Amino acid sequence: MKRLVLVVIILLGFTVQAYAKGEYKDFFNSLSDDQKKQLKALREQNKEGMKSLHEQMKQYGKELKEAMQTDSPDQSKIDSILEKVSSIRLQIAKKRTANMIAMLKILTPEQRKKFQELNKQMKGKLKGRQKGRINRGEKDKSE
After folding, report:
1. Contact (CB, 8 A) for 50 and 92
2. Lowest CB count within 10 Å: 69, 102, 103, 123, which one?
């Protein structure tokens, strides 16, 4: 289950990064006006739903930092904060997955196929970038 959640988060991250970089611009421009309106409404709804979760993550991050910086950190308090963080991350993953499913339902079967092809292309591009970073990291260590 944890791996599935992680994979979904990564794939959604790829999609967001790719869209932000304009990789999907032509695809989204080819959608009907009604589909564009539906997707925009979906994005706005998702944005509002995620806002409070991200604020909670920030708060727990501050609490964790404070708990770690005390003279004698309390392991049980830190564990409690980490459990809350894990819970929020799972909620975020579930919301992102639900949003992706809702988005795919707006698309026609042909559009879904094209969208999935674009995702595969982007995944390949990002894998290459990550591999390059790993290789550069190994070179840096040996120098």
Report:
1. yes
2. 69
In a domain, 42, yes or no: yes
Is 128 a member of any domain? no
Q: How many CA atoms lie within 13 A of 84 on its CB side?
A: 18
The answer to whether residue 132 sits within a structural domain is no
SS3 content of the chain, % helix, strand, coil (to 5): 90, 0, 10
Alpha carbon distance 24, 107 (integer Å): 14
Domain encompassing residue 110: 2-119
Q: Give the model's pLDDT for residue 64.
A: 93
- 21 located within any domain: yes
- For 87-128, what is each residue's pLDDT tens digit? 999 999 999 999 989 999 999 999 999 888 888 887 777 666
The total number of residues written for the chain in this structure: 143
Domains of the chain: total: 1
Instruction: Tell me the per-residue pLDDT of 3-18, one tens digit each, with 9 for 90 and over.
Output: 666 566 666 565 555 4
CATH of the domain at 97: 1.20.120.1490
